[in-house]
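QUALITY CONTROL LOG
STEP: pairwise intake check
CHECKER ROLE: data steward
CRITERIA: each record must contain a sequence immediately followed by its structure tokens, with no blank fields

ENTRY 1 OF 2
RESULT FIELD BELOW
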Amino acid sequence: MDDIALDSIKELDIHVGKRLREKRQKLGMTLAYVAERLGVSHQQIQKYEQAQSRISAGMLYQIGQLYGVPSHYFFDGFQSLKQKLGERQNTDIICHNREKALNILLVEDDPTDELLTRRALEAADQKVNIFCVHDGAQAIEFLRYKTMNVDFPRPDIVLLDLNIPKRDGHDVLKEIKRDRDIQDIPVVILTNSISVQEMIAVYKNQASGYISKSFDYDLFQKSMIGFVEYWSLVVVLPNTSQDIECIPLRQAV
């Protein structure tokens, strides 16, 4: 089996898991309730939803019966990697739309720091959309399940304070990078700490950057403007890789 086929199987597991989770939540069923009805542990149901365990056809049929849908419901909308590649006209092209706003999830519990960070981010010339959550549990809930009643798109980047309640920033970073549905979202750490050991730890856990807060607002604003410019103008993110300014890879190298 080639790499594309293996990747497609992984993508299918992720797609099915996402459909399982969304349907369960829509029905208002808890993991514990579903597990009890099916005679398995709630950890096993969670593994199915997070694509950490392959689900059998028999189990998928039982879950479909419980949720009131046919088994094929969980496969609806799936497109394999091979199909996606086949639709591309030219795989040597990067398309970067610099006009699209950068969607930032700010994880910050201090109201003053939130206000200053918003003000500094909005000082950039590029468009930004900012949504803030105030503890680690809210951050994971928002990214993984989108259960909050807000109209905000999937974040392009997470700006994460380390010193937050309920689940600290280190735990949130690890959780994001363990979850295949959201691990592709870059996470940049924003913190008052200047501990080198702490900085090394977050980079080992796949942080995309580490920014130390400054007590000098002008300096802090410059850092935030540089942050926005880098992620808007230099880096090509999935949300900004459409429609405008197509750059051949061979010329870009």
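ENTRY 2 OF 2
RESULT FIELD BELOW
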Amino acid sequence: MNSREAIIALVIKYNAQWDDVMHALTKREEPEEEYYLQYKKMKCNVVTILDPEYPVQLKHVVKPPLALFYYGDLNILSNYYNNISVVGSRDCSEYGERITTEIAGDLAAKGYVIVSGLAKGIDATAHKAAIDRGGKTVAVLGTGIDHCYPSENLKLYWKIKKDHLLISEYPRNASPEQEPFPYRNRLIAGLSKTLVVTEAKYQSGSLITVTFALNGNADVMCVPHRAGEQSECNRLIMKGAIMVENANDVIEEMSKY
């Protein structure tokens, strides 16, 4: 078993728990044969941090995934500056859904790759808008690569799996747990130089993604909302986030890179 195969087998054994896998690697632990056999039986593709195909931008996130499991074309992520992460509320409003559809759709139509987390609400809307406008999208899962959550996005999951890019640091059918979802947000933020928050209520989980983006020196852009709506977007704008109202605003800001 070579170094690459050992990493994959250990990630499977410890279900991608980074500290456990790193400890095992440091101790030169030899994974049991059963985990190597599980890897060989996988239908998904796997890229490790040792491979040249590994997305270089993820090497700079907190605890970079030692292995990524994926379906689709990994080359979609090849241009860091062409990727735009779009996040927001799971329980989105009609306005949030409409503005996300417009911005994500227009950006995708112009060749930008839309990255999000396949959650209900804004995430799913952004993925669908990119697909509907003939663009490309990347879904970063907080579950095992072969587990769709929420189940209502199953059709979208299969579409992205077939024609776009579906990635997870978790193997097999790992079920959703509370911890992986905030933790995976570091990947959503890390894959793009630009993060667009189209709708978020006070104390939204989107703030976790914003924090990761800021720590990675990415630009955070927010869509403004009406006063009195307890909009986290408005608060972020007050704190220095870039206000954007449409795709052209996003593109204009990105042209300053």
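INTAKE CHECK: passed for both entries
DESCRIPTIVE NOTE, ENTRY 2: The radius of gyration is 18 Å.
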